[in-house]
Amino acid sequence: xxxxxxxxxxxxxxxxFLKVLEEKKPNVDEYVLFASSRSxxxxxxFMNKDYIVEELTENSFDSxxxxxxxxxGGETSLKFAPxxxxxxxxxxxxxxxxxxxxxxxxxVPEVNPGDLAIHKNIIANPNCSTIQAVVALKPLHDKYKIxxxxxxxxxxxxxxxxxxxxxxxxxxxxxxxxxxxxxIFGNCLPHIDKFLDNGYTKEEMKMINETHKILHDDTxxxxxxxxxxxVFYGHSESINVEFYNDFDLDTLKKDLAxxxxxxxxxxxxxxxxxxxxxxxxxxxxxxxxxxxxxxxDYGVNLWVVxxxxxxxxxxxxxxxxxxxxxxx
Length: 328
Ligand code: A2P
What we know:
Distance between the termini: 12 Å
Radius of gyration: 20 Å
Number of domains: 2
Oligomer: single chain
Bound molecules: adenosine-2'-5'-diphosphate
Order of helices and strands: EHEEEEEHEEHEHHEEHEHEEH
CATH class of the largest domain: Alpha Beta
């Protein structure tokens, strides 16, 4: 009997967990939905049934769960994931709380499924921007070996949860922002998550550290600038990559197109390139504007787009759970 807890079921990613589960129908017998006391008792329609949302407490996992999908913020994960894990439940955590811990696999199923082999009941879902980047980079790193990466992101407001989404919707009507420090409508904020002592934001350092961990290669030199833009759904990324080895551009495009989860959209003569409005609502990673960086010996520029709430969060977590169920 497989029982699954959805933690943060009323949030931006939590509601997408439910949608993706309805679509994919993994082999699960029972679901229980949890959120904070604020929405405990509310009703959520899911899998043709009405579910009453329960308050997450220290005893919530006593009844025995096989898996828990967490997306209720870092503090909730820090406190409750170890409680769930200690009771035999495997947590798939969407927050950044556990990602860089040694015994916690950080997994994108197309990229490093082997890392799921050993865990201590906590598995981390990577940062949304990292997930789509490493899907595009994995086939290239395997074949041409990456020397250096420059990430520049254009990230949707939904990545900041329900409140971030509301700031753009309200901003269109002239209402001041509540989540972001400045208006996001008609604006770009080079500021995602907290600023750190080294001058980078936490989001930028997540991309750098998580890329190293997922690709199992700390020698890659990486820098990043992450920017919030007035888009509801879908993160876009300019990724500049330098390789150790030479490549043929047409072959490199085929390497990308042949990799699971990637759709190459690159036909500039017909103005075809990936855009967030096309990626929204899908689980694929779209790659376009693929062109040689002629300022270095072996470099390429990529434009990579994906739905940050689906592949960047909920769908990736559900795919991890499906892999675990498959293995059992
Ligand atoms: P609630 O609806 O009760 O506030 P978002 O990322 O869209 O802001 O959503 C955050 C999700 O995490 C919501 O489902 C929210 O529930 C939930 N959440 C926040 N804090 C807690 C907590 N302390 N315990 C359980 N769930 C929480």
